[in-house]
């Protein structure tokens, strides 16, 4: 037999819209972000809108596509207010029944229309199912209920709809019709399963009631031209038909229960209802309208079903009337006196929340398209929730740490679990050397003795002191020679006293010597430390090399134990029996049993601690993984203003962890109390107390041995570090003292060159003075003779010419010098000293090169102090002896002497040292500053004038170091005392001679050196 036809709701149609530009404008204005970053999201939403316009009426894919678009609209509504004031988009939809258009700017209208189409597709999908098999029947049953649930959602959530197909009466009509059809489908299943007549009557009665409710709501809609008349005819026919079926099955039930008269009355009612249904069916048009899924075939099927049911009713009625007339003779009540048929509801509207659950929602709706776009409210509250979770973690960690700390303090006080090893005989293992002692021995293995290092330091110190002694001797010799020459020549010896020039150098020598003396004190301390621990170093080094550190430790421990046993003879050997071997005869628990009890409690405490650690780790991971951003986004409207309550509700998911942690802390406290009681009882035993006392004694000995070797190990590292610093110190100070030696040699050479020139000038002035006296006397005699013999002009002329020639030979002035006005003779030289011409520096050997000027003590220039800061190195270097002699000489430099020496060969005046009563060359005093540090004056130096300018390129040297008394400080090449620190600069002095060459030059000098004859004055 053909299945009963079913109604389905038509779909609403809509026009195309553009989501992209309005959304971009709102993102730019409200969120302040670049809308171009959301091009893909806007395009995705717009494509969803276009796809859902073309879905079919009977399509599961279309249903899911509509639901996906609706889900994205719900998420969109949380971020974008779509209305006529913000995101303004015109939504145009056509009425599903009248096809009239309605336009709104509200997103709610768009969502209601989408939900309406989902419900329509579900009803169409249910009506088109073949209910001949269980699968189709179940699908139809579920889809009709789901459709009713969608219509119910529209009825409950969208008020004041703009179109008639969304009005309350229309939606309620659709709800009743779809539920009635779902009830009818379920009834068909029960008929096929041959259920009892009473149940079938109740199911059919509920379907008839729902159809009748639909008819009642539809009457108002028909008056408003919402539903077509065909809908009313079909629903009224179905209502009468299902009522007839309900009465039919109820009559059978009454007859089975013995109510034959009532059964006859119900059959009469069923016949009348079938007649009414058939009359409605006959009014159905031959061509149904397009807005229904009904066809002429479906209408004929309904008519056949009504006629078939009416035939069954009439046949049963005839039989029951005959039986009652001949057998039962029960009265037949009126129809008005019959009780209504009871109803059983088998179809209910499925809520939207139950229709798609869990993974189905994620699969159908997909991820939030605009999940990257979060409002400020969501971000702030998400951060607040993170802080709430952090507070929870901190509180639980604090409680767990407090309980663990209390346990650790208790175990430390009881000296557990280490004290159990004493009672169990584990003392022998405890006496062995630990890894730290073995590491100390391995570090000392292969290390050389410190004897060679100390010898090296002494050699370096002796070398430095030797250089300082040499500098002092050279300065003393130079000053002695200068003063002896001054005493010999008196005022003619105008060279500046040496004491005014070498004050800085002598101060540097003293400063370096003091530094060396201080370093010697530190060296002595290092040496004393080495002598103190030398034997220990050798023992540990040997033990490390032979891998016998444990043997050394045991030997030292035996010595300590033997020393201790002199005072206490009752100390037993660690190899004696343990307390586990003792057995009590008093009936109580033995020591072994009590120790086992303590160990069991310790194991339980350890398990509790591990459980707490795992719980805390799991709690941390879960709190970090808990993200309620989506919940905040989805429930913003309901949560707003109640954020704190919402946070507390969300935190309840962590309560199980908190309860277990609290329980673990209590269990830990209980175990500690029990452990104190059990272990305290064990310690009351006298033999346990004796064993503990013995172990503590041995432990003290072990600690003393380890402390002793730790002191040796630290002394070894202190010595290694101190010797390393001392080497660096002596290396740096050696370089500085070598620089000082070069400066002293430069000063000596310059002073020697200057003294040679001065000595030559004194001898020259002495000879010229004697010749001048002779000329003067001859001139006076000649004048007297001329007065006496004025008549002999020829003789006068000859005498005058002879005198003129003699004066020309002795004159040191140019030939065109002025003559005496009266005599016409050359003007004799005055007694005033003339500046000495440059002379050759005395040669200090026949094979070696001539000494060149030092950059530390440059040749003096007029108006510049004799000793000055170094000039650029290249200023003093020449291409060879010839080049050196051909260049212009600075002050103090020696020009080469020759037999034809001519004082006029040098057009400039050669300076000499100032007289003894004048300290400086220039008229304005300029104190010597060649050795003063830029920051701290050198020892013995006076205050440096503010107008003093150092030569270009001069770098003030650092002061020399003064070592500490206990250890050498780290040296960087610039931490020496002030004064001679300038010699630590890394400047090349390749033109200086070695000390041996400088000392051998005066001895091999030729007799032409006027300075060489003064060596005998030492």
UniProtKB/TrEMBL annotation:
Location of the region described as Disordered in the Swiss-Prot/TrEMBL record: 778-874, 895-1018
Key word Coiled coil present: yes
Any one GO BP annotation for this protein: protein transport to vacuole involved in ubiquitin-dependent protein catabolic process via the multivesicular body sorting pathway
Pro residues bias: start-end ranges: 850-862, 954-963
Subcellular location: Cytoplasm; Endosome
Keywords of this entry: Coiled coil, Cytoplasm, Endosome
Matches recorded under PROSITE patterns: BRO1
Coiled coil region boundaries: 378-405, 591-618, 688-750
Protein name per Swiss-Prot or TrEMBL: BRO domain-containing protein 1
Source organism: Penicillium vulpinum
